[in-house]
Amino acid sequence: MKIVIAGAGIGGLTAALSLHATGMTDISVLEAAREIQQVGVGINLPPHAVRELQELGLSAALAEVGLPTDELAYYDTQGTLIWAEERGLDAGYRWPQYSVHRGKLHQLLLDATRHRLGNHAVVTGQRVDAVEPSADHVRIRTTDTQTGLHSEQTAALLVGADGIRSAVRTALYGEKIRLATNGWTIYRGTTRTAPFLTGRSMVIVGDEHQRCVAYPIDAHTVNWLVVRPSVGGNAATVDLGNWNRPLSPDIIARYVENWTFEWLDIPAMVRASEAAYEYPMADIDPLPQWTFGRVTLLGDAAHAMYPFGSNGASQAILDARILAFELARHTDLDEALRAYESQRRPVVSAVQLANRSQVSDVMARVSAMARAQDHGNAAAELKKVEQTYKHLAGFDVETLNNRASWNAVRS
Ligand SMILES: Cc1cc2nc3c(=O)[nH]c(=O)nc-3n(C[C@H](O)[C@H](O)[C@H](O)COP(=O)(O)OP(=O)(O)OC[C@H]3O[C@@H](n4cnc5c(N)ncnc54)[C@H](O)[C@@H]3O)c2cc1C
Predict the structure, then answer these.
(1) Could you tell me if residue 275 is inside a domain?
(2) Sheet harboring 3-6: ordered strands across?
(3) Ligand 1 contact, 309 CB (< 6 A)
(4) In angstroms, what is the span from residue 10 Cα to ligand 1's centroid?
(5) To test ligand 1's pocket by mutation, which of 31, 113, 242, 344 has the most ligand atoms within 8 angstroms of CB?
């Protein structure tokens, strides 16, 4: 059975590795970029995503590139602690939480895919332009991004893992589904500097008007984000879904000028960043359907979400694992696709919506309490929100530690 995956991103490569682990061999990943570069800044992989990568045999490789996060701490705009909780192994999980450079994670997945499936399995410079699903196969049209030559192939299944601006999603839905911004921008970068607090802390500082998130991704590098309403008429808001629009760190440092604390000098950290990027937050409404005949969607293509709660890449990894698990368990491909979608779509749709409410609603409630010096209730509220989110996204300690593995071998 030939399976084609559109997009060699985190979701697409995890899907290729997961399908291969079940015993499938005819897998081809088509990637639009000619060269896969180590772009992006840091991302966080909570234990539910780490479990899946470890079960794919990537434990040692992951430990080499990732730094285990041991706490998440919220601070108000004065630098006063509101609430902190342990994370990863320290929180009782059987798997760590890793902070990692996104490019290094991507490279790790690419190396593993080429090593296990063969170099030919990932075809770069091939953009998927159009798809025609039918009941028992799919026709896929691609363009060579260097020569401009078009070609066509058929497969038993196409997995659209081509990211936030998915061409496969557009082929299925047309222009009905569009990326939209909530009017907030994320500014982000990495700085060569010593880690702070425990050395493995992830902090969220601020209120409903502006927030800074920071965490080390190795012993010498801190990843940071500043989130605030977009500047009026910001040109970037017309280029939604582009993660890599550069911006001077000095501009961003001015936004956080007053946030110098004993435990972290945020403006100095931002200013010392070698490069910084702006990303107007964008997502799509939850989709009513992921599977159309022999085409299904996965990762950002299926559920582009605001990057809160460290779940964009994690949910893509979970999609990949469950898709492979269901394909291994069912001899009927259509049944497998139905099982995949019915498990994943409702869960991830809820995560998309929860991420929307995190932007301002939650922070408005918590910050109002912190401003009234009611740190006790603010802490209780944050604890409740975090707990609810973990349940929703599939990583509360009990559920994750006790659920069966999604490792499966095709019969
Ligand atoms: C460059 C970049 C930087 C990012 N930085 C961050 C970050 O710093 N923090 C964060 O939380 N999230 C970041 N993200 C998003 C995060 O990585 C995703 O939420 C997560 O990886 C979901 O994985 P995915 O495989 O669905 O999509 P992606 O990882 O985005 O992968 C999609 C892949 O599909 C390819 N592609 C696109 N269109 C086509 C096509 N028509 N045909 C074939 N291939 C195609 C893309 O080149 C890409 O390799 C970034 C994404 C990108 C692409």
Answers:
(1) no
(2) 122-124, 27-31, 3-6, 157-160, 295-297
(3) no
(4) 7
(5) 31
Please say whether the beta carbons of 167 and 330 come within 8 A. no
Find out whether the beta carbon of 307 lies less than 6 Å from any atom of ligand 1: yes
The reply to whether 385 falls in a domain is: yes
Is the CB of residue 102 below 6 angstroms from any atom belonging to ligand 1?
yes
Collapsed DSSP state (helix, strand, coil) of residue 26: coil
Distance from C-alpha of 77 to C-alpha of 260, rounded to nearest angstrom: 10
Give the count of domains, the chain.
Answer: 1
Q: Which domain holds residue 290?
A: 3-178+284-402
Q: What is the CATH number of the domain that holds 395?
A: 3.50.50.60
Q: Quick check: CB of 300 below 6 Å from ligand 1? A: yes
Q: Whose structure tokens read 């085409």?
A: 295
163 Cβ inside 6 Å of ligand 1: yes
**At which residue do the structure tokens 């332009």 appear?**
129
Are 365 and 20 in contact by the 8 Å Cβ rule? The answer is: no
Tens digits of pLDDT across the chain (411 residues): 999 999 999 999 999 999 999 999 999 999 999 988 777 789 999 999 999 999 999 999 999 999 999 999 999 999 999 999 999 999 999 999 999 999 999 999 999 999 999 999 999 999 999 999 999 999 999 999 999 999 999 999 999 999 999 999 999 999 889 898 888 999 999 999 988 999 999 999 999 999 999 999 999 999 999 999 988 655 555 678 888 889 999 999 999 999 999 999 999 999 999 889 999 999 999 999 999 999 999 999 999 999 877 789 999 999 999 999 999 999 999 999 999 999 999 999 999 999 988 766 788 888 899 889 898 999 999 999 899 999 999 899 999 999 999 998 887
Residue 128, domain member (yes or no): yes
Quick check: is 58 in a domain?
yes
